[in-house]
User: Fold this.
Amino acid sequence: MFKPAKKTSIKALSEKYYYLELSLLENLDVDPRPLQFINIWIPSVDEIPMSISQLDGDKLYVLFKVVGEGTRSLRDRSGFFGVKGPLGNGLVLSNYSRVLFVAGGSGIAPLPLLAKHAEENNIELDVVWGVKKSPDLFNVKSIAPWVKSVYYATEDCIVGYCGRAVDVVNRVLSDHLWKYELVIGVGPRSMLLEICRRSSNQINVLVSLEAMVKCGLGACGSCILKPLPKLLCVDGPVFTCSEVIKHLEYSHDY
Assistant:
């Protein structure tokens, strides 16, 4: 089920963000769609879900922020890992012509694959990215050159807009006369909840959720989206706001 992959390079993008290149020794079963993910098995450490940032031939790329033992191991270890996927339902962009992608923190990870698909389908893609501390930022176009415009927000107010990504969304939508056909949100649940509450009654909004994913196949139940009878790994990670608003409100309250 896991396919072997060798770590071939890793690049520091900023103080905590890294871009990992893995060489696949076996092809993935299917080409990934934007916002699908993989589980990476780190021998003797853990199995962790990661967004697919890009796939180029046998080269698989993963953008991640170092936050714990698993991501530290991805950064520091060499050698071989296991890759399971692509997992989840992903996203089809061909029905849209202008899209706004909103990322909070490490929610920026799936952008390169999304941006490449947007370029291939002649879709105009703009990005709002917010982080807590400005040293976390990097040049988004260095990994996703197909993006048209990028709006940065920092909570330390040193770079870009002062505040959170969600605080910039309505300003960007208003400045562009609400001519986007779709908003895609990826990031903390509190951010996704605010985007849904503020914008989903005026524009089509999709959100990509995160959860504790173990098997990735819907068998273990670890990624259930309480209080809903939905599993992230088989029903998601992409949902409309109406599908998961109860989960976002539940998660926000607890």
